[in-house]
Amino acid sequence: MFFKYVWSYPSWQQHAQATSTKQFDLTCCRRDTTALQAVVCSDDPFVLTVNNDPFFWKAGSVPIGRIEVALDEAIPVQVQLVGLIPDDHDDPTSDILLDQTHIYVEGKKLQQVWIECTTTEDVPPGIYHGSVRLYTHSLFEDEQLQEECRFTITVKEPVMPRPAEYRFFLNIWQHHSNIARKYQVALWSDEHFSILEQYMSSLAALGQKAATLIVSEIPWSGQRSFYDREPSDLFEYNMVGITKAPDGHFVYDFATIDRYVALAETYGMTQEIEVLGLINIWQAPEAGYGSIVAGDPDAIRLRYYDATTRAYKFIREGAELDAYIHALEAHFIEKGWIEHIRITADEPENFALFQQQWEHIQQVAPSLKLKVAINHAEFIERGVTGIYDAVPNFACATQQHQKLMASRSQLPGKLFYYVCCSPRYPNTLIASPSLECRLLPWLVERLQLDGFLRWAYTAWPDQPLTKISYRPTIWPAGDMCFVYPGARGKPLLSLRYKWLERGIKDYELMQIAKQADRTGWVEQLLDGVFLFQDASTIRSDTPAEKLFSYQLEDYERLLLEW
Question: Helix crossing, 351-364 with 318-334: angle to 10°?
Fold first, then answer.
């Protein structure tokens, strides 16, 4: 399942090696998944299908291959074609799990097929046998069996928890407005929510614990896309409707927030309700994206409809801004959410200014709790008064690890870490080795943190299915998403999604092992994966091979030795 392909120089030696394995042994638990890839190639072009429907190629007579998977018992099998996406060097790289059932394959090009098997909790432990068969034909010829490869699945005794029961705290921010744009539906419409639910379902399958609320206009200022040579629309909009009544008072419509949180709750995604847009608004005053409220230490932008003039305007008075923040707090209290609400700041840069911004919010809405994604060690070293949950990036979480552990008892909430456009490794980028996605949850266990945060699930550039690379010198390809916009509002998952999912399941299995008094064994497994003794010694120029194992067997021991 960790095979990765870059279609560049077509070395036939590489192709022969990629297709040389004819027998493979898999291991999983009950209520679990396990996967492998079939790899098909030919000197000449062909079409590959993964279902049994009748099929003729539109351009005439070419060889047609059909993949068929058979497996003992009634273990469900999902078969999908793997698509390529150009990386930052324009080299097509495997990542997308396609929804289509056939694909045209050029000569001397590899075509991957994702094969995933799902066990239920009722499957008896034991060994199950499967096969992957390739049938070929042209036009009206009868199919011929061209190749058969075999695999086994060893099902172990433990029963994996359901994703909603995962102890691993996964938090990937949601970008609702971008989803509406890509599907060309009205913002916050029924059509939009129908699509959002499909994306929420895919997040829930990973064990996502948090819902994202945007409560002001463009808190990231469109990721400052206006500086880019080819800007993409990356603006996120307020989920709260604001109207100024004829008598001068403001009316707040929280219906969209309420609907989204209710939907998230059905998917187990409200352990935290992250509120973005109230603190540390990203600014670019020289480009016009600065503060518009007099005296506001931040740059919160609130658009409202003036019922008298029938024009849209922006709040510009500090008292009106404070009234809005207070109304938000009151609504969160009324809905019974206040203990789950986290006012979230994304990478503040100015320590003194940020402290001032948070003190102002506390004066207006004292029951709100603060969560900070930190990319400056100063915020850990000096400490920000009132932080409830801390999310240092990888560099801070490792280099400041001793300080974090020493002060953890003073932190009321949780301690996570995150990766984004940095570090170069470990990460979840298109160019990242596949095992690094699996590694990230293991790192949570090694560092004794609570979970992992990622900034982007669907922060796609304008043409994500043809050009995912955007701002490559800052954001390497893959930084902006884990899934792609598919047809009918359905997300197309990625190999990176599946690799991260395997790592999360590894983490859950470690917790089961520790409950069974096998903590020492778990520590041995971690020692085999992590090659550093003291996390605080890690530096950005430390070679990856001196930090982590890139040998699959070091990870597979978790299942094989159970």
Answer: 60
Query: 3-state SS of the chain: helix, strand, coil percent to 5?
Result: 30, 25, 40
Nearest in space to 46 (alpha carbons), one of 65, 66, 67, 19: 65
Task: Summarize pLDDT for 436-476 with one digit per residue, the tens.
Answer: 999 999 999 999 999 999 999 999 999 999 999 999 999 99
Question: DSSP secondary-structure letter at 298?
Answer: S
Asked whether the beta carbons of 483 and 497 are under 8 A apart, the reply is: yes
CB-side neighbour CA atoms (13 Å) of 197: 12
pLDDT tens string 106-135: 999 999 999 999 999 999 999 999 999 999
Do the beta carbons of residue 441 and residue 430 sit within 8 Å? no
CA nearest to 54, candidates 167, 139, 159, 180? 139
- Would you state the pLDDT for residue 169? 98
Q: Is the peptide bond before 423 cis (omega within 30 degrees of 0)?
A: yes
Pairwise CA distance, residues 430 & 496, whole Å:
8
Residue 9 pLDDT: 75
- pLDDT tens, position by position, 273-300: 999 999 999 999 999 999 999 989 999 9
Give me the pLDDT at residue 394, please: 97
Q: For residue 93, give the 3-state DSSP assignment.
A: strand
Query: 92-97 and 241-244 as β-strands: parallel, antiparallel, unpaired?
Result: unpaired
Beta-carbon contacts of 232 under 8 Å, excluding residues fewer than 6 positions away, are 225, 460, 461, 462, 470
Give the separation between CA 67 and CA 50, rounded to whole angstroms.
5
Q: Do you know the residue count of the chain?
A: 562
- Measured CA to CA, the distance from residue 454 to residue 489 in angstroms comes to 22
Neighbour tally for 74: CB within 10 Å: 7
SS (H, E, C) 346-382: ECCCCHHHHHHHHHHHHHHCCCCCEEEEECCCHHHHH
Task: Note the pTM of the prediction, 2 decimals.
Answer: 0.97
- Cα 512 from chain centroid? 24
